[in-house]
Amino acid sequence: MKTFIYENKYMIMISLISSVCLLILFREIIKAKVKKMKRYNGVELASATFIGDRELQEDAMNIVLEEKGILAVLADGRGKNHVGKISSQLAVKIFAELFANENAISNANYFFKRAFNITNREILKKLYDHQGGASIVCAVIIEDLLHYALVGNTMIAVFRNNELIPLSEGHTVNVLAQRGFYQGKISKQQALWALKEKRLLNYVGQDGFKDVEIYDVPIRLKKGDLIMLMSDGIHQHASWNKLEEAMKKHLTCDQIAENIIHQLKDDAIVNKDNASIIIMRYRGHRLRV
Q1: Is 89 strand, coil or helix?
Q2: E runs forming strands in the chain
Q3: Per-residue pLDDT tens for 232-263?
Q4: Counts for the chain of helices (H) and strands (E), in that order
Q5: Which of 134, 168, 199, 224 counts the most CB atoms within 10 A of its CB?
Q6: What is the CB neighbour count within 10 angstroms for residue 230?
Q7: Burial (CB count within 10 angstroms: exposed 0-12, middle 13-18, buried 19+), residue 15
Q8: Which CATH number fits the domain that encloses residue 211?
Q9: Could you tell me if residue 9 is inside a domain?
Q10: What's the predicted TM-score (pTM) here?
Q11: Which of 288, 281, 4 is nearest to 139 (CA)?
Q12: Helices 173-182 and 188-195, axial angle in degrees (round to 10)
């Protein structure tokens, strides 16, 4: 009888451990999502997202495929009580609809300015007195040209010749202070103080919104170029060397995105943020217009 009870306890313990392991595995599958996409008109596409240790996923992203070109947009929401999530989802929706419905190819620069301004206005209307908003990075590929713009602490980079090159600087206080010092707008002491501060200064969803970081000249893509759009959960927590190493491997965009997300999950980072990434590989064929 004692042997029977002991064996039952042993089996119950194994069952409980197995159940806990399955629950943990299921939770991790839910938390990290990799959206697999095929090639389109000479461009390979993939995206991935990770909720981190946050209660809500406040990142949103979309890829719009049109004959006139490809749009990739990623928004990182900010604010409490679902405000950040609402802001990022609204931003992505507006950008996608404008690109699909308008002739964005005629003037990409004008498209970016209009999309950011409409998004800012609509978020303010939607949120009323609630404080919130979103950082946004957007890229448009037309033929073999990359057009891009951003607001906030999102980032865009291009991997070429085994080097990951950031195209954007961002709108946190420390970045803007450094820029202001070099332009002679603030003193060295003011710049040193501000460089310690990484608070987000500019984003859509505020009355004072005005600055959009837009390319000076579109980048002519070369065969094999990788374009990466990322939220701050990626570029502030994953080392630049690790991102470069992930790009150097001869993998698909899906595999690269998945590897970067898994590295973040495995790193011993306290209070992990939402992390999202879009990767596009230019295959050397001009997109038909």
Answers
A1: helix
A2: 32-40, 43-50, 59-66, 69-79, 132-142, 145-151, 155-160, 163-166, 213-214, 219-220, 226-230, 275-282
A3: 889 888 888 889 999 998 899 999 999 999 98
A4: 8, 12
A5: 134
A6: 24
A7: exposed
A8: 3.60.40.10
A9: no
A10: 0.78
A11: 281
A12: 160
